Amino acid sequence: MNAPTAHDQPAPDAKPRRVAHLDMDAFYASVELLRYPQLKGLPVVIGGSRRRDDDVMGRWRPEEPPNPDDPAVLDPALRLRHIPLDVFPRLRGYTGRGVITTATYAARQFGVGSAMGLMKAAKLCPDAILLPVDFDEYRRFSRAFKAVITDIAPVMEDRGVDEVYIDFTAVPGGQREGGRVLARLIQKSIFEATGLTCSVGVAPNKLLAKMASEFHKPNGIAVVHEADLQPLIWPLPVRKINGIGPKADAKLATHGIHTIGELAARDPTWLRDHFGPTHGSWLHDAAWGRDDRPLVTESEPVSISRETTFERDLHAVRDRAELGAIFTRLCEQVAADLARKGYAGRTVGIKLRYADFKITTRDHSLPAPVANANELRQAAGQALKRAPLQRPIRLLGVRVGNLCKLGANGQPLPDVTQPPKNKPKVHPALDGIAQTALLF
Ligand code: DCP
Ligand code: MG
Description:
By secondary structure, the protein is α+β, with helices and mostly antiparallel strands. The chain has helices at about 25-35, 55-60, 70-75, 75-80, 105-110, 120-125, 135-150, 180-195, 205-210, 230-235, 245-255, 260-265, 270-275, 275-285, 320-340, 375-385, 430-440; strands at about 20-25, 45-50, 100-105, 130-135, 155-160, 165, 200-205, 220-225, 305-315, 345-355, 360-370, 395-405. It has a five-stranded mixed β-sheet with strand order 5-6-1-7-8, with helices on both faces. It has a four-stranded antiparallel β-sheet with strand order 9-12-10-11, covered by helices on one side. Bound molecules: 2'-deoxycytidine-5'-triphosphate and magnesium ion (MG). The site of magnesium ion has 4 residues, from strand 1.
């Protein structure tokens, strides 16, 4: 018999895996409350338009002539704190198509929350204060709280503007009280550095940690162990599993499965038969709290692409020259993006959007990674040949996937890194802004 290898059993001193999920409380709203602390405890919603110079604050004209000895006259930050409540706009009478990005907990008591139309919210809570969004400020605070975390616990996966996973396993304090001690330290340090509160869940893996961070929101900590699965996790609705969206939820409901416990009770073969082999197995594992996904600490791009919408719809034959020139330029731009970031790719794809807004994509895979404009143009040309070209086209895109990093000599590095499976999350509200970043 072979001697056991390192893979057969954990080292005697191996620590149990502890993963935290940290999510900021009412993030955008809390950042606004730092600017306007006089709004603390009041229903406030953030949404509608972007901040402009002529927003509320600029409109405030104090009735009393300013006292020149008052420090608030000189310091704009102090000035903002003195704006009386009645100067802030209310939801009452709102008309328009704006939506709420988030609401303070005081506002949530009226039933308003993320993604709700402002007109509907105005009916539920007419006295709520409405503030415009200021993405730059939220991003600044996002960077700040993440810097606090990595100073304490270096292995962190960035999951978007207000949430991260943190590996507690080997960090001092990360095992004490199941991770609660370290979670408390991080919460305290973030609060001291930014004035913001957050909620943390600590568990054996990302899946359970994500659920746990919601348990004691706001400003709470929840520690989950494997033994808590049955009492704490199984009574929850299946939607609480990150990855079960409205469609899967509805389908599970048609089979009488509403809670995670009911899902766990189903035979895995039955799940695979009804949801497909991959999804079925995943549903079973998720319900049993199993998840061995590692933390993705640096986000490698999944693909690099450029696309352009034409001034007028173009036809592949009639507008051949014009289309050809645009196609070549897109390949040159992608090549420049690849060079700047130091990547080459083995899959070159095209995307077409037709005049009727339908989209077609075609990929062409190559034996070796390519990065220069000519090679890209050739491969993309092969992909384009296989796309239907009879209808008028309004958009053309070129994309390179299956990326590998290039070394200083321009050759692929030997330890070619696979791109992460989970694309970094982009919040719907940030979509417009983040899209460019994702594309390039
Ligand atoms: N957001 C958005 N549109 C949504 C949901 C959220 O723009 N439909 C933005 C605003 C939030 C931020 O993303 O402040 C973080 O989202 P969360 O879901 O974590 O919500 P909050 O942090 O606001 O509240 P909670 O305390 O429930 O985490
Ligand atoms: Mg949050």
